[in-house]
C-alpha cells in the first residue's frame, strides 16, 4: 500500500519535513439524492449555488487537496457552512465522500473494510467534539476509559491510563462525578482525556473549544499547546475563530463554500492573503501579537540594537527597536545565529492590515 | 335510482354469508390440522405457568410476603412503598383473596416477562430500520385498539380455553407499549453521543449495549411499567377464557350482582397495580439519577 503513496513527491515549505501524515486528494462531497450523477457538473466548474438551483444538490466539499504534516497542528478554518466539519468527518469516514482519496500513513482510508476502519478509529485517530459527546450515564473516569475499553484494554490498565490522563488535563478528583455535574470546560477536558487516553497518533478536534467561554477557551488552548509540546501528535483542529487558529496552528487552511482558498504557514496568510475574502477575514487581527519578526526581516546589515528573535512578535520587538540608535536590530534564530535584521519602519508597516481591493466579500 | 342512494349497495346476503363461512371454515380446518402442534409448542409455557402458580400459592404466605417486600425494597428503596405493599398483601389475605391474588400475580409476572423478552428485541429492531418501524407500527396500532374479544375468538378456536390462550390474549394487549417505548428510547439517544461512540470505533454491538440501551433505559422502563398496567387490566377479560384468579371472582360478581365481591377483588387488582407501578417507576427513576444533578 505504501508504494502508491510514496512515489509522489510532496512539495514542502520547510525542508526536512517528513512525508505527510494525512493527505487528502481531490476530495468531493455532494449532498443530495444522486451525488454521483451531478459530480460531473461540479467537475465542469458548476458553482455551489448553481448546483443547488439546477440540480437540488448541496456541494459540501469541492476538490479538497491538503497534505497534513506529522506532529504538527493543522488548523482548518472557515465560517459556518464552509464545510469544515464535513471535511474532518471524512478523515475517519464518519461521512463517506462522493469522490476523492484520503491517505493516512500511506494507507487508503477509503479502501478499508469495516474492521480496518474500526481499527483506524480505535488505534490511530481519536476525536474531540464541539458538543463533547460524553456518555451521560458513565462517570468521568468511565468516560475517559471508553476508548480503551473499545480497544479491548484490560479494565485495570485502562483505569490506570484514564486516571493518568484525567490528572494531566487537571481533573483529578472528579473521577466519580457524572458529566452533567461538570462545567462545559471541565466536560471538554474529559473529552480531551478520553481522546488522549487511546494513544492515537492523530487527534481530530472538531470545534473542540468553540462552545466554551472565551477565557476557558484560551485556557484550553494553552493546555493543548502544553500537551502538544510533549506529545507531538498530529492534530487536525477545526475552528471558526481566527485568533484561535493563529494561536495554536502550525499550519492553517482556510475553507469557503467547500473549497480551500488558502493554505499554509499562518504568517503567510497574515502577510500575503490570497484574496479579498481572506484579507477581509484577517483585518481585525491584532497584528502586533501575531506577526512574527521572521515575516518582516531583511537580509543582514549593520545594526547596533539588541538582537530580537525570529519568533518574536512585533509587540515583543518594538521596545528593542525603539531603543536601538539606528532603529534597527539584528535578528537571531532561536539557536543564536544571526540571520537578518529588522527596522522599526518595517515593523510599523506590518501593523497595517493589507487592504482588500474589491467590495466586502466576507459574507459571500 | 333513489333507492341506490338511500340503501348502500352492499354485497348480497348470500354472498356475504358464504364469504364469512369461507373464512370460518378455512380457519377451522387450519386449527383442526395444526391445533395440536400449536398446543404442543406452547406446552412448556403452560407447564411453567402451572409450576409458578403452584409455587406462589403453595409457599407459606409469610415467606411470599417477605420475598415481595424484599423485591419492593430493592426496586424502590423506599420504606413507604414497602410498608404499603406489605399492608395491602395482608389485607388481601385477611379478606380471603390470597389464592386468587397469587394466581393473578403468577399470570402477570409470566405475561410481563414474556412481553419484555419479546418486546425489547422487537423494539430494538424497529429502532434500527425505518422499514421495520413502518411495518410494525400499524400492527401495534391494531393490537392496541382492536376489542380484545375479537382476538379471543381465534385464540380460543386454536387453543381452547385455559391458561395459555389467556396468557396470549394478555400479551397481545400488553406488549405494544414496551415495543414502542424501546424503539422511541433508542431513537431519542443523542446523536452526538452516538457519533462519539462511532468515532472511537465502537462496533454496532458495543453501540447497542454500551450506549443505546443504557441511555434508553428510562424509556424502556416506562414501557415495562405500562406493560404491567395493561396486563393487569386484562385479567378480567382473560378470566372469561379460563384464567383463574381475581378476574374470575370479578366475573362471578358481574354475573350475580355481588357488589361486595366485585369491589373487593377489583380493589385487590388495584392494589397489585399500585405496587407494581410504584416499584417499577421508582426503579426507573433511580436508573437516571445521573441526569438530575448539577449543571443540566
UniProtKB/TrEMBL annotation, chain A:
The protein's matches in Pfam families, at most eight in alphabetical order, are given as: ABC_tran
Q: Does the keyword Protein transport apply?
A: no
Q: By its UniProt entry, which PROSITE patterns does this protein fall under?
A: ABC_TRANSPORTER_1 (PS00211), ABC_TRANSPORTER_2 (PS50893)
Q: GO CC terms for this protein? A: plasma membrane
Q: What keywords sit in the KW lines?
A: ATP-binding, Cell inner membrane, Cell membrane, Membrane, Nucleotide-binding, Transport
**GO MF, one annotated term:** ATP binding
Identify its membrane topology class. Peripheral membrane protein
Q: Which reaction does it catalyse?
A: a quaternary ammonium(out) + ATP + H2O = a quaternary ammonium(in) + ADP + phosphate + H(+)
Where would I find the ABC transporter domain in this sequence?
A: 22-282
Q: Is DNA repair one of the keywords UniProt gives this record?
A: no
Q: Where in the cell is it found?
A: Cell inner membrane
Q: What is its EC number?
A: 7.6.2.9
Q: Fetch the Gene3D superfamilies from UniProt.
A: P-loop containing nucleotide triphosphate hydrolases
An example GO biological process term is: glycine betaine transport
Q: Describe the subunit structure.
A: The complex is probably composed of two ATP-binding proteins, two transmembrane proteins and a solute-binding protein. The complex is probably composed of two ATP-binding proteins (TmoW), two transmembrane proteins (TmoV) and a solute-binding protein (TmoX).
Record family assignment: Belongs to the ABC transporter superfamily.
According to UniProt, the name of this protein is Quaternary amine transport ATP-binding protein
Query: Which organism does this record belong to?
Result: Celeribacter baekdonensis
UniProtKB/TrEMBL annotation, chain B:
Q: Which InterPro entries match?
A: MetI-like, MetI-like_sf
Write the record's keywords in alphabetical order, separated by commas: Cell membrane, Membrane, Transmembrane, Transmembrane helix, Transport
Q: Name one Pfam family in it.
A: BPD_transp_1
Q: What is this protein called?
A: Glycine betaine/proline transport system permease protein
Species annotation: Celeribacter baekdonensis
Q: Identify the residues that the record assigns to the ABC transmembrane type-1 domain, covering every copy.
A: 101-280
Q: Where are the transmembrane segments?
A: 55-74, 81-98, 104-127, 148-175, 227-246, 258-276
Q: Where in the cell is it found?
A: Cell membrane
Q: Identify its membrane topology class.
A: Multi-pass membrane protein
Amino acid at each position: 500500500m505504501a508504494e502508491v503513496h510514496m512515489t509522489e513527491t510532496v512539495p514542502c515549505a520547510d525542508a526536512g519535513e517528513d512525508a505527510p501524515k494525512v493527505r487528502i486528494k481531490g476530495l468531493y462531497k455532494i449532498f443530495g439524492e444522486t451525488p454521483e450523477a451531478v459530480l460531473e457538473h461540479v467537475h465542469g466548474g458548476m458553482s455551489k449555488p448553481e448546483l443547488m438551483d439546477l440540480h437540488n444538490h448541496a456541494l459540501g466539499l469541492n476538490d479538497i487537496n491538503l497534505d497534513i504534516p506529522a506532529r504538527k497542528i493543522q488548523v482548518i478554518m472557515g465560517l459556518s457552512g464552509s464545510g469544515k466539519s464535513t471535511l474532518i468527518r471524512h478523515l475517519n469516514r464518519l461521512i463517506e465522500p462522493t469522490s476523492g482519496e484520503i491517505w493516512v500513513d500511506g494507507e487508503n482510508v477509503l479502501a478499508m473494510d469495516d474492521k480496518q476502519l474500526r481499527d483506524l478509529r480505535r488505534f490511530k485517530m481519536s476525536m474531540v467534539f464541539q458538543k463533547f459527546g460524553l456518555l451521560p450515564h458513565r462517570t468521568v473516569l468511565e468516560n475517559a476509559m471508553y476508548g480503551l475499553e473499545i480497544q479491548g484494554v484490560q479494565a485495570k490498565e485502562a483505569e490506570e491510563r484514564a486516571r493518568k490522563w484525567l490528572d494531566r488535563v487537571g481533573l483529578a478528583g472528579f473521577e466519580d462525578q457524572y458529566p452533567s455535574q461538570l462545567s462545559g470546560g471541565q466536560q471538554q477536558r474529559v473529552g480531551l482525556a478520553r481522546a488522549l487516553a487511546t494513544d492515537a497518533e492523530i487527534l481530530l478536534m472538531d470545534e473542540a473549544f468553540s462552545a466554551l467561554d472565551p477565557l476557558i477557551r484560551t485556557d484550553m488552548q494553552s493546555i493543548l499547546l502544553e500537551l502538544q509540546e510533549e506529545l507531538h501528535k498530529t492534530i487536525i483542529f477545526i475552528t471558526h475563530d481566527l485568533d484561535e487558529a493563529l494561536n495554536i496552528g502550525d499550519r492553517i487552511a482556510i475553507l469557503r463554500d467547500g473549497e480551500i482558498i488558502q493554505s499554509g504557514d499562518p504568517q503567510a496568510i497574515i502577510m500575503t492573503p490570497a484574496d479579498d475574502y481572506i484579507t477581509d477575514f484577517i483585518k481585525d487581527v491584532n497584528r502586533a501579537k501575531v506577526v512574527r519578526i521572521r515575516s518582516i526581516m531583511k537580509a543582514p546589515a549593520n545594526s547596533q540594537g539588541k538582537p530580537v528573535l525570529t519568533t518574536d512578535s512585533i509587540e515583543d520587538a518594538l521596545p528593542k527597536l525603539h531603543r536601538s540608535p539606528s532603529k534597527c536590530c539584528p535578528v537571531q534564530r532561536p539557536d543564536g545565529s544571526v540571520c537578518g535584521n529588522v527596522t522599526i519602519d518595517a515593523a510599523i508597516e506590518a501593523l497595517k492590515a493589507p487592504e482588500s481591493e474589491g467590495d466586502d466579500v466576507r459574507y459571500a | 335510482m333513489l333507492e341506490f342512494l338511500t340503501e348502500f349497495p352492499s354485497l348480497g346476503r348470500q354472498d356475504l354469508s358464504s364469504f364469512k363461512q369461507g373464512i370460518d371454515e378455512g380457519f377451522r380446518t387450519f386449527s383442526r390440522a395444526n391445533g395440536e402442534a400449536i398446543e404442543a409448542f406452547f406446552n412448556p409455557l403452560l407447564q411453567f405457568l402451572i409450576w409458578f402458580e403452584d409455587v406462589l400459592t403453595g409457599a407459606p404466605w409469610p415467606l411470599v410476603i417477605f420475598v415481595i417486600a424484599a423485591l419492593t425494597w430493592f426496586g424502590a428503596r423506599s420504606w413507604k412503598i414497602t410498608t404499603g405493599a406489605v399492608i395491602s398483601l395482608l389485607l388481601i389475605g385477611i379478606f380471603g383473596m390470597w389464592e386468587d391474588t397469587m394466581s393473578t400475580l403468577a399470570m402477570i409476572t409470566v405475561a410481563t416477562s414474556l412481553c419484555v423478552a419479546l418486546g425489547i428485541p422487537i423494539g430494538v429492531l424497529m429502532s434500527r430500520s425505518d422499514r421495520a418501524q413502518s411495518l410494525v407500527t400499524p400492527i401495534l396500532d391494531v393490537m392496541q385498539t382492536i376489542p380484545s374479544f375479537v382476538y379471543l375468538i381465534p385464540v380460543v378456536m386454536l387453543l381452547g380455553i385455559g391458561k395459555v390462550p389467556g396468557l396470549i390474549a394478555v400479551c397481545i394487549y400488553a406488549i405494544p407499549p414496551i415495543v414502542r417505548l424501546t424503539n422511541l428510547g433508542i431513537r431519542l439517544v443523542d446523536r452526538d453521543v452516538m457519533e462519539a461512540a462511532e468515532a472511537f470505533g465502537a462496533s454496532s454491538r458495543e453501540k447497542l449495549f454500551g450506549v443505546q440501551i443504557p441511555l434508553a433505559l428510562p424509556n424502556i422502563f416506562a414501557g415495562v411499567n405500562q406493560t404491567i398496567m395493561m396486563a393487569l387490566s386484562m385479567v378480567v377479560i382473560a378470566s372469561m377464557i379460563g384464567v383463574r384468579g381475581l378476574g374470575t371472582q370479578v366475573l362471578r360478581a358481574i354475573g350475580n350482582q355481588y357488589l361486595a365481591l366485585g369491589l373487593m377483588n377489583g380493589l385487590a387488582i388495584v392494589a397489585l397495580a399500585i405496587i407494581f407501578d410504584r416499584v417499577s417507576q421508582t426503579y426507573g427513576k433511580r436508573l437516571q439519577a445521573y441526569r438530575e444533578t448539577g449543571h443540566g
